[in-house]
Amino acid sequence: MTVGVRGLASEAGVRTVLPVAPPYDLVRTLTCGQAFRWQVESGEARGIFAGMPVTLRQRDGQLDAVGLALSDDAARLAHYLGLDQPLRRIEQALARDSVLRRILPATTGIALLRQDPWECLVSFVVSTFNNIPKIELTLDRLARAFGERLAETAWAFPRAERLARTGLADLRRCLLGYRAPYVRALARLVDGGRFEPDALAALAYAEARDRLLRLPGVGEKVADCVLLFAYGKGEAFPVDVWVKRAVERRYLKGKPATVRDIRAFAQARFGTLAGYAQQHLFYNEREQGNRGTRERDRDRRSRADRQEERR
DNA sequence: GGGCAGGTGTAAT
DNA sequence: ATTACACCTGCC
Questions:
Q1: Chain Cα centroid distance, residue A243
Q2: What is the pTM of this model?
Q3: Does any strand B atom come closer than 7 Å to the Cβ of A200?
Q4: By the 8 A CB rule, do A266 and A278 touch?
């Protein structure tokens, strides 16, 4: 199989072309809350892959990647981005559910990323009781402070061995807050060989989950995020406030349910596609929430304007 | 300026 | 097994 055509060197770097099958949507996949270090702007995504700053853009049935160093990286990038997932077939299966069938037109094209387990683990420990802009800020500061510098304005995600010997005060300067001890404890477990992130890939969902739950700062939600976004365990169904609201409203007639009941419900209903179902429900719910926020912001602004005019 | 934001750990029932 | 509470910090 031919994945990627290389060549066309320019001052911007080497351009690699990856084939993309519909309904894959790069921007949605990178902005639906799986990863926090991609900068997406006007259809273009900048980030780090395989130790190189890369720029991605999707257009008519292909995906352009500028900046890869090795020919092998094309296939690895395709896997990372989920270009090898049969999304058409997956979404057809999801559409047998009447709720998802209604939602899918607004959410179609989301693939599950195959992130680096270490980066994914730290990212979601940082995400707890936090908001997205600050999560992004924290991870960026961590990378700038402790990650390898790859280019003028690009830093790799910090390695465990580096964070393992970083003072808590220095970690807190990256706005980690009370999560600083968790992050360092994780780094020390990995650095000391007492936890091997890559080893979980070979385990079944339940076993891998048990291992993750033993880690400091890792509860059920974070564990399921890592299982889904790094290891590709499709049964994982992370339940955060958005997904909880979505399931209660759309499947349980608005009746409040516990997080565990919601997860059990979804796993029974969607099986190994639970993770995809979660992404569509989450993305849809958050888009609606953001629409509400935008409207409130606009109302607030117009109120302020009217007050301004009265003066 | 008080409350909120992708939960988790801990203590108490 | 379930429930209540504290928690860093930036932002509106």
A1: 15
A2: 0.93
A3: no
A4: yes
